[in-house]
Amino acid sequence: MAVYAIGDLQGCYDEFRALLDLLAFDPGRDRLWLTGDLVNRGPASLATLRYVKSLATCVSVVLGNHDLHLLAAAAVPERALLRRGDTLAGILAAPDREELLGWLSLQPLLHRDARLGWSMVHAGLPPQWDLATAAACAAEVSAAMRSAPADFFRAMYGNQPDRWSADLRGDERLRFTVNSMTRLRIVDAEGRLLLKYKGGLDGMPRGAVPWFRAPRRRSAAERIVFGHWSALGYLASDAVVSLDSGCVWGGSLTALRLDAAAPPVQVACRGALEIGAPQDAVSD
């Protein structure tokens, strides 16, 4: 059995299937970890979502900001949340829409395999959290999203609060968790989330660091695989692996085997978008 983690798909169905062929992936034997953002921006969001769902128990998925954006658009239709460049309309109009969205809403923000020694999140963890805190906060979001989805999604968008406090409650606590786990790239010297930055390691604001290099990060002993940061690309260091190599933006789709030492495997994008720089779906 092999365990492969793959970066953000974003509706790049052809590249996804080509990458699985290159890996000789066997759903009866192997397992997949997908770092979130299954849908949006790419040309085949519906086909991608249907195929990932069909993989059933051989796939582990965490929700990304674009996945949450899709669920929000369905739960709060009066907000007209879809934007130019979104490729979600086909899912929202599909005959199996409710089945697909129901399955997606059951996916967590954090996946952990203690035996394998790896955890997965779409974007990152704030420096104040250890893994137990991350798991507890992720579970709170899942519970709120399932019990009162319209209320949850109406309150989800926004950049504040930007610093963790155990005293956070209600919508602010849930929003901070969503932003940390689905939008985070860098933090300042005080551990605040700097959510507006979308560039690479060069050009960060003075004093800012990638979330995984924050001093005294409480999750530093954990091995974590994540996506989201396409401008960072593939990076394996500091006990973390970044897997979003920007397929939808003209880069590549990357897979890494987690249960054995092996180099990353990539397939090139088959048709880059021409709508500007990467954008977050959950934002002001």
Order of helices and strands: EHEHEHHHEEHHHEEEEEEE
Kindly identify the CATH topology: Purple Acid Phosphatase, chain A, domain 2
Strand percentage lies at 5-15%
Number of distinct helices: 8
Mean of the pLDDT scores?
A: 94
Question: Which blocks of ≥5 consecutive residues have pLDDT under 50?
Answer: 274-278
Name the CATH architecture. 4-Layer Sandwich
Strand arrangement across the biggest beta sheet: 3-2-1-11-12
- The span between the termini is 43 Å
> How many whole angstroms does the radius of gyration measure?
17 Å
**Total DSSP E strands:** 12
CATH class: Alpha Beta
Largest sheet: 5 strands, mixed
Helix/strand structural class: alpha/beta
Short recap of the structure:
The protein has 284 residues and is α/β, with parallel strands linked by helices. It has eight helices and twelve strands.
What attributes characterize this protein structure?
284 residues; alpha/beta; Purple Acid Phosphatase, chain A, domain 2; five-stranded mixed β-sheet
